[in-house]
Write a structure and sequence with these properties.
This protein is α/β, with parallel strands linked by helices. The chain has two domains: 2-253 and 466-484, 3-Layer(aba) Sandwich (Rossmann fold); 273-463, Glycogen Phosphorylase B (Rossmann fold), CATH 3.40.50. The protein has 17 helices and 18 strands. It has helices at residues 18-32, 45-53, 110-128, 145-150, 181-185, 205-212, 221-226, 237-242, 277-290, 312-324, 337-349, 362-371, 387-393, 404-409, 430-446, 448-460, 465-484, and strands spanning 2-6, 36-42, 59-66, 75-82, 89-94, 134-138, 163-168, 176-177, 198-199, 202-204, 215-218, 247-249, 299-306, 328-335, 354-357, 374-377, 397-401, 423-425. Strands 3-4-5-2-1-6-7-11-12 form a nine-stranded mixed β-sheet, sandwiched between helices. A hairpin with an 8-residue loop joins strand 3 (59-66) and strand 4 (75-82). The longest helix has 20 residues, at 465-484. It is globular, with a radius of gyration of 23 Å. The two termini are 20 Å apart. It binds adenosine-5'-diphosphate-glucose. Adenosine-5'-diphosphate-glucose (ADQ) is lined by residues 17-19, 21-22, 169-170, 219, 252, 303-305, 332-334, 360-362, 365, 382-387, 405. Adenosine-5'-diphosphate-glucose is lined by residues 17-19, 21-22, 169-170, 219, 252, 303-305, 332-334, 360-362, 365, 382-387, 405.
Amino acid sequence: MKVALISYEVYPFAKVGGLADVVGALPKYLEKLATSPLVIMPKHKVVEVNAEKYSYKLEKVRESIEIPYLNTKEKFDIYYSKIPNTNVPIYFIENEYYFSSDDVYGGPDLAEQAIYFSAAVLETLKLIAPDVEIIHVNDWQTALIPVYLRTLYKDDPLYKKSSTVLTIHNLGYQGIFEPDYIKFSGLPESVLDINGIEFYGKINFLKGGILFADVINTVSPTYAQEIQTKEYGERLDGVLRLRSSDLYGILNGIDYEEYNPETDSRIYVNYSLREIEKKYENKQKLQEELGLPQGDLPVLGIITRLVDQKGLDILADVLRYILLMDVQFVLLGTGDKKYEEMFKKLEKEFPEKVSANITFDINLAQKIYAGSDMFLMPSRYEPCGLGQMYSLRYGTIPVVRYTGGLADTVKEYDEKTFKGNGFGFKEYSSAYLLKAIARAVDFYKNKKVHWRKLVENAMKTDLSWERSAKEYLKLYETAKNKKLQGR
Ligand SMILES: Nc1ncnc2c1ncn2[C@@H]1O[C@H](COP(=O)(O)OP(=O)(O)O[C@H]2O[C@H](CO)[C@@H](O)[C@H](O)[C@H]2O)[C@@H](O)[C@H]1O
């Protein structure tokens, strides 16, 4: 089966968040299942910058392609490379005007950029993969592709056999813009309708994908249910309920080759469950690197985009109480200024206990996953969450709010049965968060046998992509059947 995965970010070429990890890893595992995946992304500025660091070559394969129906004369080139350590081809859409910002999600006009990219993808597939069967789009930036296929490309013989899958990685980002963009897009005015991409007088790209894709999925079974409720639906719950029978939840995996404490060259000392003492060498080295006093007190790590989604407000409410418990707190993140300043202030106030690293640093991230004892994710909502999965893999115990993918991957430890791999709470409140952390700290300090068992359970949790890639394959079959039935 020939599958094209379309994404705005793909690891290691350009990464802002979890989306890059997913689209960087899934094709690798699809390839092992005897499908022929290919990937298309924009050639952001950082793609050139990362070429040397990750040893990949970029080769220009086509140039000066026009998109006749768009209201622009901009042309694009196509570059080619391979996803490192695989045979999976990746194509880059290059256009100086749209994709040369320093920031992957920056640039002259986000709506035009997403429209341009979506249209360029369809023109590119015609040239490089006319036999494509599944076009798998991700998030709002690529969600207009199914809309184009059902309108402007409806009678195109090359797309007669292709079905579409939309994966929603985060319903909080929908791509809502002024309706005038319809002119730029070349789409028929008829799609600007309540049964199309119209949304409270504006255009909503993600809504278009939800209504026009053959099947839709999100990145965990729990989130797939949650988004159909008013509380989590971000005003699209009604539209999602309309497509309920075509809406699936597939848990992300993590790349076991890339994220393996036994071989990861980014951490201080490699370790496995058999030599778990070496994990504590990582902790000591991390404390040393971050200028924290060394000692056997629990290190609480957090690595995140600093945005409201991640539950930082309830964490802020209780951080001072948490620090009273004789723990250290290590943060890595960038994002909203209010959070950046808050954590920096806390570091100034408690230099012996807090290390606030306001930067994006993939190597330091791995050192924190390996060197911490606990990992915090008190998210307001969490479609899947990768942080808790990486921490489990590195024997670092997650303390989470049981929502979305966090509820699907972290199970409360039960000292009677010795089962469970973490701690958590359900109600979104700082008091419950504090209680969950206190429970984790109590186990760490006073119940060493249980802690050892927790670490073991964490490291043995199955989070592999093999399992998830098989589910995606099934989803692709479902999409093909839907198309045949004439959805
Ligand atoms: N400052 C920093 N330095 C280095 N690395 C950093 C960093 N800040 C974040 N990261 C890394 O970015 C990734 C974050 O991934 P998550 O899945 O946890 O959240 P995100 O909200 O980005 O993803 C969205 O998409 C993914 C993929 O589907 C869903 O899992 C998730 O729930 C959804 O919100 C992790 O690999 C983390 O280590």
